[in-house]
Amino acid sequence: MNKTSLYAYILFSGNDDFPFDVVTDRLNLQPTKTCKVGERVKPNHPINQLVHSNTGWYFEIETKESLDTEDVLRPLLEVFQTKTDTINQLKEELNLDVHLELVIQIYDGYTPALVIYPEFSKFAAKIDAFLDVDMYVFSVDEPNV
Prior knowledge:
Layout: E1 5-13, H1 20-27, E2 33-35, E3 56-65, H2 70-80, H3 84-94, E4 97-107, H4 118-126, E5 130-138
Parallel strand pairs: 4-5
Antiparallel strand pairs: 1-3, 1-4, 2-3
């Protein structure tokens, strides 16, 4: 049986020619994913020809079965909260935007409360980040995507 799940990530983007290694070195973190503008989203897919519309450096928190957004936002905050000065320097030096993303995959109508705690919203404000929430709703009969 499918369960409602959540994951969160931070995305550095906006400049299609920024060096990933500079972000990696300065944050002292390996990205979970990177992509360059124009690269195929699913390079080995025979039909899907979609390409990335931007260049991005991603750090994703592991997907958790939960109805509490704090279960994925807190770990993201714990990794990046002490790096606000570095994030702001990278944004300025490399002309980047920062997105904080929450992805909710809803199964069988089990909908989590969408709560952004003050500590997280203060962090988002300090780095002037976009806050994006993506929701995907699946019915009982739909296959897991």
